[in-house]
From TrEMBL:
PROSITE patterns: EAL (PS50883), GGDEF (PS50887), PAS (PS50112). Residues 584-717 form the GGDEF domain. The chain crosses the membrane at residues 12-31, 249-267. Residues 403-446 form the PAS domain. The keyword Transcription does not apply. This is EAL domain-containing protein. NCBIfam families: GGDEF, sensory_box. It comes from the Bacteria. It holds the Pfam family EAL. SMART domains: EAL, GGDEF. It comes from Alteromonas genovensis.
Length: 990
């Protein structure tokens, strides 16, 4: 029985939905077809009007040409003057001619008459003296009819119709007349007046499209007229009314389906509600028992009412006296509770049916609250009372009055903020006392003379006020003021429109704050984000942005030069060749310092930093204000010599290389000779992209190194095979072999806790980072600094990352005793892997199939790769965090240095870039930077790791700053992972 009822609950609404849907869909389809018919009829009518107008225009012009020939004088001493006068008169009376040409009996062009300046024409005075063939016509001498041709002019980029005939076939000595018409101009004017923007159309003469507007779709509304004459040429016209953005048929279908679904859903709910009424009653009883209001039901009893139902909360509210109250009438209960007047009000509800609601102060000890809210409603023949404890609300009113006074004191004491009220005309009528602390003006003085103190208003002031007038809250905006002390301040306003019940603006309220310091700090941060902190040069990101701008400018200017050089005449071809020779060119130089690693390895990173600063000073001497100089990597620089040819740049590079070769670097009584290998490439209109350009220059730089260092190598289009030198090929081959034959070797370096006492740290779970070395049989281990850039350049880095993940887990799986003592194992992932969905799935599958707990694995991603593809990074992190892995943000501070990105990335650790850590003992700016990064990371609940801890003094400073972990040679040197695992196993066995 219940199954049949339940079947009807779903079947009947489904049938109703199908019937209503069929009705609405049918109606929508009918309306759509009717709309298509109306559009086709409208297009047909307008097309006929266009045809008539074009035929009338054509007939008048052809007739005028015949009249000009018929009126040709038999004896005229100067036919050119006569022709010029008549043709100018004709073009003045009838618009549409682009030119009229007179050709003598020998077929030589004698005169060309054109309308006012600015008219596009296929025939001009430059053709005087040329033969008739220069016009593209061959007019027969004895023909009575007009000869015509359609020609396209590259110079005007328009189609032109030329009409010509012998003036008198019987008297050929009079010569010929040729009339030219600019088709695009004529059709553009006439169709613009007749058709308007609501139609798409196309006019064709043969295979040539003379004029078109919009894109036509063959949906049954396209109208095509039979060919008709236009200036002695057969043309066809196709026209279509544009689609209306409002599609009533589809709207009816969508709304009808929604309404059908809604009606069916309501019907279903009603049926379901009827079936489950008993369940609902039980739920109602449960809800009433869980209610925080006392619910009482009374039934009539003679002239009074008797309590029949009361929920459990009533026992608490009436201090357990519900059973006693059930023996009393409602009038007796009112007197028992000390509120006899409420009985009359409850009785009135039963008589007139109008609900009653009131607040009552309680003085009796029979009721727990001090204030109650009583609601009385009819419940059939019964009445229902709801009693709520509102003691806290009435207490809150008193607290509100007290808080208003506290609010006024708070507003007047706000630091660097003030609240304000403006009229609908944006005149200040109230500001709090905070304005005096910011600008020095008293509130009443500021309200009276605010406009005197304004130095600059936002450019979008008009739009802001329009938005406020519409009742919309605008975005915060900045106003510059001059303070009483003469100093400039920037105040940010956040306006809120105040509307009356009619929706009219009555006032504007808001809060303002002093953002002078924030803006100054933002400018400083912007500078730091675009400049290398060590050398002060542009960094990689700023350089890439400016390089893309240079490429856009080069392509735009060269394209303009090419268009200016297009012509069919030999003179203009020479001009075009001159343009092509003067196309805008620039030269980019990719510089890699020679023997820089020797300085770093011999004297440490402080010496390397000092070398980079001094070398950047040398580079600055060989660039001017128009050139770009940037540091794009550790010891890599880029220079763009703007608007200079390759020959002049090479002369400057010769001087630069000479200066570098003469430069001597001295550090701790050690003398070093350095050099610079330079890859040179020209930037022109054929340059494909910034990435291609940098890659080619980088390859040329490697070639310069291979040829002997401290020299330049010019990359040319045919040098693709020279991009990778022999040594690079060997490393690349070793990389491929290692991927096939497990030729890598895993190393590791400890990450030591800094906030744990030394006697406890020995028992602290071991944290370490996985490092990678390439094992080449001939030359031993290859540094990651050599093979990782090659792997990234050749798209192999994701395979390398997967190898490291797989083999790290294999090592840990094979050594469970070591795994018990491990806290975290950090594995680096490249930017390529971060955006590779397939690599992500492989890592997830490997982690799910391993015996290594996921919480012991921490993946490290660099700040720059995460920011470059923020969406992919967030997806990658969330997927692996869901299975238990943790994440660290590596090299933080060296790239974007944006704490906004840190807030948006769900990482557990922040690794402070070593460029800030290694000089922290001596450089106060680095000390402040590390302090700020550490404090903000801690405030976000993230732990910090300091890289490049080079000595014990650095470690002690980091401990004082409460940095959580440290990593560097002073704490632990890299060692093979196999040795670390064996050492831990032996230690455990001892």
């Amino acid at each position: 029985m219940f199954d049949r009822i339940n079947h009807r609950v779903y079947a009947l609404p489904t049938v109703l939905f199908l019937l209503l849907s069929i009705l609405f869909v049918s109606t929508g389809i009918y309306i759509q077809k009717d709309e298509q018919s109306a559009r086709a009829s409208k297009a047909q009518s307008v097309a006929e009007q266009v045809k008539i107008s074009l035929e009338v225009f054509s007939t008048e012009r052809v007739k005028a040409i015949y009249n000009l020939m018929q009126n040709w004088p038999t004896f005229e001493p100067n036919p050119v003057d006569w022709f010029n006068t008549q043709s100018l008169s004709l073009m003045g009376m009838q618009r549409g001619y682009s030119s009229l040409a007179y050709i003598d009996k020998t077929g030589t062009i004698q005169w060309v008459a054109t309308p006012e300046a600015g008219t596009k024409t296929r025939i001009d005075n430059s053709l005087i003296g040329e033969p008739m063939a220069a016009l593209g016509l061959a007019i027969p001498t004895l023909s009575e009819s007009l000869d015509s041709a359609i020609l396209y002019s590259p110079s005007t980029q328009h189609h032109h119709i030329l009409l010509g005939r012998a003036i008198s076939p019987q008297e050929p000595e009079h010569g010929y007349i040729v009339a030219g018409f600019d088709v695009q101009t004529i059709l553009g004017v006439m169709l613009g007046e007749l058709v308007g923007p609501q139609f798409n159309f196309k006019l064709q003469a043969g295979n040539s499209t003379l004029f078109a507007s919009g894109e036509m779709v063959d949906d049954g509304t396209l109208v095509s007229l039979p060919p008709f004459k236009f200036i002695d040429r057969d043309i066809t016209l196709s026209m279509q009314s544009q689609f209306s953005p409002f599609n009533p048929g589809m709207l009816i279908i969508v709304i009808g389906l929604l309404m059908s679904a809604l009606v069916s859903y309501v019907f279903h709910k009603q049926l379901k509600g009827a079936v489950h009424l008993s369940v609902s009653q039980q739920r109602y009883l449960t809800a009433s028992e869980a209610s925080l209001d006392a619910l009482l039901i009374y039934q009539p009893s003679q002239n009074d009412y008797t309590l029949v139902e009361a929920n459990s909360y009533s026992e608490y509210l009436f201090r357990g006296a519900v059973d006693v109250m059930k023996k009393m009438s409602l009038a007796e209960q009112s007197r028992f509770l000390g509120i006899p007047e409420e009985f009359e009000k409850a009785a009135n509800v039963a008589k007139n049916g109008a609900p009653y609601e009131g607040y009552v102060a309680i003085k009796s000890d029979k009721i727990v609250p001090e204030w109650i809210k009583i609601q009385v409603v009819n419940a059939g023949n019964n009445i229902a009372l709801t009693i709520r404890d509102v003691t806290e609300r009435f207490k809150a009113q008193k607290d509100l009055e007290d808080s208003e006074e506290r609010y006024r004191r708070l507003v007047d004491g706000m630091h660097r903020h003030f609240v304000y009220t403006k009229t609908a005309e944006h005149s200040f009528i109230y500001v709090s006392a905070g304005v005096e602390k910011i600008l020095g003006y008293k509130p009443e003085q500021f309200c009276a003379h605010e406009m005197r103190y304004v130095q600059q208003v936002p450019d979008e002031t008009f739009e802001i006020r329009e938005a406020i007038a519409r009742g919309q809250k605008p975005a915060a905006y900045l106003v510059h003021y001059q303070g009483q002390c003469g100093k400039s301040y920037v105040v940010e306003f956040s306006d809120t429109p105040i509307l009356n019940e009619k929706g009219d603006l009555t006032a504007v309220e808001g809060i303002a704050r002093d953002v002078t310091k924030e803006l100054a700090l933002h400018e400083e941060v912007h500078f730091q984000a675009n400049h290398d902190q060590l050398t002060g040069l542009l960094n990689r990101y700023a350089f890439n942005a400016q390089l893309r701008d240079i490429l856009k400018e080069t392509r735009a200017e060269n394209k303009t030069a090419e268009l200016a050089g297009e012509s069919t005449s030999s003179v203009l071809r020479n001009i075009r060749d001159t343009h092509s020779q003067n196309q805008r060119r620039s030269v980019m130089c990719f510089i890699d310092m020679d023997r820089f690693k020797l300085v770093n390895d011999s004297c440490g990173h402080p010496a390397g930093d000092k070398l980079l600063k001094e070398v950047s000073t040398v580079f600055r001497q060989y660039v001017n204000g128009d050139d770009l100089l940037a540091r794009i990597g550790g010891d890599e620089f880029c220079i763009i010599f703007r608007d200079q040819g390759l020959d002049s740049v090479l002369k400057r590079l010769d001087k630069l290389l000479l200066a570098i070769s003469n430069y001597r670097f001295v550090y701790d009584d050690k003398l070093f000779f350095v050099g610079a290998s330079i890859g040179v490439i020209e930037i022109n209109a054929q340059t494909q992209s910034a990435e291609t350009l940098i890659k080619a220059a980088d390859n040329a730089c490697y070639k310069a190194k291979h040829l002997g260092r401290n020299r330049y190598f010019v990359y040319r289009d045919g040098d693709a095979q020279l991009a990778i030198d022999d040594s690079e090929n060997k490393v690349l081959q070793a990389l491929h072999k290692a991927l096939q034959n497990d030729g890598f070797e895993l190393y590791s370096q400890a990450i030591m806790p800094l906030t744990v006492p030394s006697e406890v740290s020995t028992h602290y779970p071991q944290h370490y980072e996985i490092l990678l070395r390439l094992n080449a049989s001939e030359s031993g281990l290859i540094s990651p600094g050599l093979f990782i850039p090659l792997a990234e350049r050749h798209g192999l880095m994701n395979k390398v990352d997967l190898w490291v993940v797989d083999n790290t887990l294999k090592t840990l799986e094979a050594n469970p005793a070591h795994l018990d003592n491990v806290g975290k194992v950090a594995i680096n992932l490249s930017g390529i892997t971060l955006g590779d969905e397939i690599a992500l799935q492989k890592i997830v599958q490997r982690m799910q199939g391993t015996t290594v707990p996921a919480e012991k694995v921490c993946f490290e991603i660099t700040e720059t790769t995460a920011v470059t593809n923020l969406a992919a990074a967030k997806h990658f992190i969330s997927t692996l965090r869901d299975i238990g892995c943790s994440f660290a943000l590596d090299d933080f501070g060296a790239g974007m240095s944006s704490f906004t990105y840190l807030k948006n990335l769900d990482v557990d650790y922040v690794k402070i870039d070593g460029s800030f850590v290694r000089n922290i003992v001596h450089d106060p700016i680095d000390h402040a930077t590390v302090t700020a990064i550490n404090n903000i990371a801690h405030s976000m609940g993230k732990q910090t790791v300091a890289e490049f801890v080079v000595d014990n003094a650095t470690a002690q400073v980091l401990q004082k700053l409460n940095v959580d972990f440290g990593q560097g040679f002073a704490l632990d040197k890299p060692k093979p992972l196999a040795h670390r695992v064996q050492w831990r196993v032996k230690l455990a066995s001892v």
